[in-house]
Amino acid sequence: MINIPSTFRISFRALKVNKMRSSLTMLGIIIGVGAVIAMLAIGTGASKRIAEQISSMGSNLLIILPGATTAGGVRMSAGTQTTLTMTDGEAIQKECLAVQDVAPVLNGVAQVIYGHQNWSTGVVGTTPSMLIIRDWPLAAGRPFTEQEIKSATKVCLLGQTVVDNLFGDMDPIGQFIRIKNLPFTVIGVLAQKGQSAQGQDQDDTIYVPVTTAQKKLFGTSFPGMVRIIMVKAKSTEDLAPAEEQITGLLRQRHHIGQKQENDFTVRNLTQIMQAAEQSTKVMTLLLGAIASVSLLVGGIGIMNIMLVSVTERTREIGIRMAIGAKIWDIRLQFIIEALTLSIIGGVAGIIVGISGSKIISILTGWSTIISPLSIFLAFGFSGAVGIFFGFYPAYKASLLDPIEALRYE
Amino acid sequence: MPIIEAQEITKVYRLGDIDVKALRGVSLTIKKGEFVAVMGPSGSGKSTFMNILGCLDKPTDGKYLLEDIDISNLVRDELAGIRNKKIGFVFQGFNLLPRTSAIENVELPMLYDGIPAKERRGKAVEALKNVGLEGMENHHPNQLSGGQQQRVAIARALVNNAPIILADEPTGNLDTKTSAEIMEMFVKLNTESNITIILVTHENDIAAYSRRIIKFLDGLVISDEKTGRS
Q1: Which helix (H) or strand (E) holds B225?
Q2: Given an 8 Å threshold on Cβ–Cβ distance, is A320 in contact with B112?
Q3: A402 touches chain B (CB under 8 A)
Q4: b/e string for A27-61 if b means 16 or more Cβ within 10 A?
Q5: Which residues of B touch A319 (CB under 8 A)?
Q6: Fewer Cβ atoms within 10 A, N terminus or C terminus of chain B?
Q7: Chain B residue numbers touching A323 (CB-CB < 8 A)
Q8: Residue A71 within any structural domain of the chain
Q9: Same structural domain, A243 and A279
Q10: For residue B26, is pLDDT > 50?
Q11: Of B111, B140, B165, which to mutate for an interface test with A (greatest number of A Cβ within 10 Å)?
Q12: Reduced to 3 states, what is the DSSP secondary structure of residue B57?
């Protein structure tokens, strides 16, 4: 009969006797587990951040820019740069089946003034659809109405950064601010959105009706002109069809011949971001895999020490066998020793991994996320390493010939 | 009633291409309560025979019955069980676990017998008391004299109530006075507790404590006589 608690006691004592050796062996596992947790935390943090940026940008997003950016061939004159109009946007909304919402954008930079505060910021002329496309709710107030768009009313929505800079703690709604010296009524405040994928402050912006921007702020000789058109596809699957439908429609509307280059570009930002997310995931996996190698090396360290320990204690094993230890008594003794090393190492490694990733995120500013799964994984793996690499030395010990073992000096 | 019955036991070792016959057919019977000394020069086969008696090794041929159990047919773990319950070993080099207190050394056989910790402790204290080591429970082997270490080993051999003690030159590492003390202890165990004692020795004055002397030479028993003490 195998006496588990006593076998544990025997194993613990053996480890305590060789404190230095036990702790060095554990160090291998500590580093391994710590590395796995820290690496996965960095990777998961990066993925999470990209995923957040994707959702902050708005999902299933297409951006139509004027002027072909593709290289090769002779470009048309510079005038072709201003090729997109309000009616293009309306046509896309009407005719492209894969499209859910369209928002034209005409933007520029302007000085804004409230009282004795002033601030330079990006002013975006657009329609209420923009808020849907970018999944951007209002923190307060109301969006533009159709009537305000039609009549080019001087109303505006402020980003949080603008509110902070012009109003401080005051409630801006109903106040007048001056954009390019024209008075605008603040009718709403956009919810805080944070940084974009490019590191821009997305909250440093003012939304005005697109018509107001065209007629009063950034007026050009080309009436109804917009700088870009933002499009939200009905679903992720609809992104590619939407891109196709838009390209077809705009080529037709702009009278572009078969061999001519497009005078616009449709960019699928979601796709680009998803590719980035995918590559971070691969990176996470890679980091995890590299860290796992160090865990494996730690495991081999355990096996190494256990083999030395078995040889060193050959005589002890012989005595135990003579006195009546059975095969599994001996095996369990050494397996528990290996397991103890790897589990204590694993727990210490979890602590090292967690504090390590906290330190990394403080030092580098990267966001790190420690998932319970990675802790569970690293811990389970270290336990498995202990059993796996402990078994062979234990097996070897259990098969010693008691007579030979007793004679061993 | 025979406690040990050996019938035509042979043991052959293979050393490279040569077969070495360590035992060439040994038959003998030992009754319960006997005190036997086994003698013989090195290479005579006495150690091989003792290993077989101690269930540490199996005969190549022949039959070994221990309390009517045929040892030849048992597997490794069954042999371990027999050693645990029936045989107490006392070695020349004491063979106590280093860095382990006297009491824990004595508890060891009970540990492998699955006896609960509390009962183990009580029996071990008792066994140490019986060999005159009261109060030394927590001493480690390196804090004990040779004689004391051998007493711990005897306590360990007795603690599972083994009917047989196999002692392989138990006084080989001890001075004359301590040897005498240890041998007196064996005599006492033999006469008072009726424990069968089988002792390997080179020395005639140690063998003189026994009641029967079996001499080995070249793998055979060459003499088997009662001593003056019988």
Answers
A1: strand B220-226
A2: yes
A3: yes
A4: bbbbbbbbbbbbbbbbbbbbbbbbbebbebbbbbb
A5: 95-97
A6: N
A7: 83-84, 89, 108-109, 112, 156
A8: no
A9: no
A10: yes
A11: B111
A12: coil
Whether A78 is covered by a domain: the verdict is no
Same domain flag for A209 and A148: yes
Is A137 contained in some domain? yes
Distance CA A101, CA A92 (A): 9
Look at residue A71 in the predicted model and tell me its pLDDT: 47
- Domain region containing A90: 84-253
Number of domains in chain A: 2
Residue A274 pLDDT level (bands cut at 50, 70, 90): confident
- Furthest-apart CA atoms within chain A: distance in Å: 105
A407 touches B at CB < 8 Å: no
Which helix (H) or strand (E) covers residue B217, if one does?
Answer: strand B212-217
Interface list for B 67-86 with A (CB within 8 A)? 76-77, 80-81, 83-85
Which residues have CB under 8 Å from B70's CB, separation 6+? B63, B64
Q: Residue B37 CB: number of other CB atoms within 10 A?
A: 23
Average pLDDT value over all residues in chain A? 85
Place of tokens 């042979």: B10
Residue A350 domain-assigned (yes or no): yes
Contact A17 B100 (CB under 8 A): no
Of A218, A253, A288, the residue at which a domain comes to its end is A253
Tell if the CB–CB gap between A6 and B51 is shorter than 8 Å: no
Pair A91, A218 in one domain:
yes
**Topology given in CATH for the domain delimited by B33-55+75-226:** Rossmann fold (3.40.50)
Please state the ipTM of this predicted complex: 0.94
Residue A82, pLDDT score: 64
Distance CA B13, CA B85 (A): 28
Contact A329 B99 (CB under 8 A): no
Non-local CB neighbours of A328 within 8 Å, separated by 6+ positions: A2, A398
The CB-based long-range contact list for B10-19 (8 Å cut-off, 24+ gap) reads B10/B59, B10/B60, B10/B61, B10/B62, B11/B45, B11/B48, B11/B49, B11/B52, B11/B57, B11/B59, B11/B60, B11/B219, B12/B60
A215 and A96 part of one domain: yes
pLDDT at A201: 85
Shared domain check, A222 and A115: yes
Please identify, among A253, A288, A319, the residue that sits at the C-terminal boundary of a domain. A253
> Same domain, yes or no, for A146 and A249?
yes
Q: Angle A36-A42-A43 (CA atoms, 0-180°, nearest 5)?
A: 85
CB contact under 8 A, A13 and B91: no
The domain limits of chain B are 33-55+75-226
Q: Does A399 touch chain B (CB under 8 A)?
A: no
Same domain, A103 and A243: yes
Pick the residue from chain B with its C-alpha nearest to A404: B56
